[in-house]
From TrEMBL:
SUPFAM superfamilies for this protein: ATPase domain of HSP90 chaperone/DNA topoisomerase II/histidine kinase, CheY-like, PYP-like sensor domain (PAS domain)
EC number, as in UniProt: 2.7.13.3
Species assigned in the record: Stigmatella aurantiaca
Annotated GO MF terms: phosphorelay sensor kinase activity
Protein name: histidine kinase
Positions where 4-aspartylphosphate occurs in the chain: D614
Stretches assigned to coiled coil: none
Amino acid sequence: MLACLPPLGRGGGHAHLEALTVNTKTAIELLAQVLDKERERVARLWAKRLREELYEVEVPGKDLRAPLRQLLDELVRLLQDRGEDALRLWPEVVRSHGAFRYDQRFEPDDLAREFKALASVLMRVYVRCEGELPYEVADLINELTSEAGASAQASYARVLRTESVRFREAAVMESVLYHVEVGILLAEVDGGVSFATQPVSRLLGVPIRSVVGGRALTSLAPVLAQVNAHHPGGEPFRVADMPFMRALKEQKPVRGVMMDVERPGGGVASLEMSATPIWEEGGELAGVIQTFSDRTEATRKSRELSTAQDELRRLQGQLLQRTRAQSLGQLASGAAHALNNFLNVVRLRVTLLRREFKPEHLDALDRTVGQIGGLVSRLQEFNVQRTEEHLTDVELDTAVREALELMRGELERGEHPLEVTLQLGAPGTVRADAGFLRELVVTLLLSARDRMAQAGRLTLTTQKEGTGELSLRIQDEGPPFPVESLAQLFDPLTREAGAPQSALQLAVVKDQVRRWGGELTVENVDGGKGGTFVVRLPRAREAHEEALPAGRRMEGPRRFQQTRRVLVVDDDLDNARMMAEVLGEEGYDVQLAQSAEVALQLWERRRYDAALLDAVMPDVSGWELARELRQRTPHALLAIVTGMDVRGQNRSTLALVDAVFRKPIDMGALDEFLSQSDAPEPSPPEDGPGESVGPGAPNP
């Protein structure tokens, strides 16, 4: 084949263009056959012609023919497999060749010469092999090479534009880096600082030339000394403490290192620094990028919050101290109540013994009992004088929110923080002391929190009750309250292990709620999914309106002509029996009840002229029972019998009863109260034991 080919020269083969005409499909098949047999020859001649056109110097190891051979291989495959589609597909194959030539620093004109040379080589090889060049084949060659050249040049232009964009983006990025608030520093593997943006200079307060260039130990040490760099705790900040130095040493990121520096114009700036190692493709450490961020304002606010939190802790300490003082007062009051129960038994027994034995000995014993009662009264003074209330109209929702803010840190602290859900219904105002009401909510929140060993939810709900009261419910997700322990939950003298402290606090809260005319109860959530403290307080408007009618109601007589049937309600069975025995000997028909529930059942069965009610009972207090009995029998005589001091009760509560008798009871005063035909005149409470408080007695 080579022997029959004439020498290759410029312009050969064009004399036979008109000699033969074929269709396009045949032209593609003819060109494919020639290229398939002569692709190596075409590649070699193409590379030779290209070197001549571009004055390319042949360099050892540089194969100019390889990329051309790949293009020819693709052209042959497309002509054989895709036929006429090769005219459309081959330019797409050549597209990447333009980017390749850009990397080899070819010029756009060089690409035009390259594919012009290919056209010339293809025509001459075809003529030398076939003898003649049909017009359709020549046209096919020109179309293939011109389309391929245009595609390569378009790809070249796109890469050129992309590189221009990259250049512009680099310029923009550099400008941005110099104007953003975050400083960037680049450290080399040897510890030298090779690059820093302008914000680094602004944040440190020194020129860039003081930071960049040279080893960090020599260049940064004077800078840190000049700006008096130090840790937030006050220790001097050394070069070794810099995050990039630690990242170079540990070969891992270092985050959130704080450094305080002095500003040139005065003041201190707090900087947060982080460092990230940079790795080569082979896995070797290339350097470290460190960032600087100004956290001065955030640090200032954090310090202010810390100061506020310390102040809050101090106030909480005062609150707890105040609560402890109230607990001691409640303990004294509870102890006095228990002691008075025993003294009352003694006095009642003395009353019986006086009728059978020598009166002079019994009088001495009676005087001793009176002295003990006086001592108890003085002990109760500690409870009465423990606080000074300033009653105002307080928004219940506001008090709840303020208490929650005081306790939020305490509730969210620890291994199992609690979630608090507020369901505040804006029910209105109550008549109470705002500070004490907040303390009350705080105490109940702490009690509810202590019931949950794991993380859980507290739900605080306020709403209006149908009886003219407002209610606050604090529901937890702790275990349900055992039914047998409900009676001792508010007992400050409980003997259960671990219970006294909690019981003291809850007793203080219950007593305070009662002083405001309300009640504190506890309930189990349906389904055994927790417990609920329920505080009910009268609405402020109704609390004011209730006092006057209640007082007027007590002005006139409201009893039967002769009192004979008496109901004694006391959870202390010994006290109740002795009272019944003494009253029985005086001619009264006495019935006993150890709970409010039994008392109400007896009251419904028959008519009673009077009721003597113990003030403190585990299920329902005597004051609450008096309200129920007053609604059922408005004209019955009702008296409270208690060892507690009643001067803390408000007027509306005192107006529920006709008298209050302190234990140990003066039986003469009690008999006079029960046997009178008209209602007694109002009188203030006395300090001595056994004295009665008349109906409608004012709140001292």
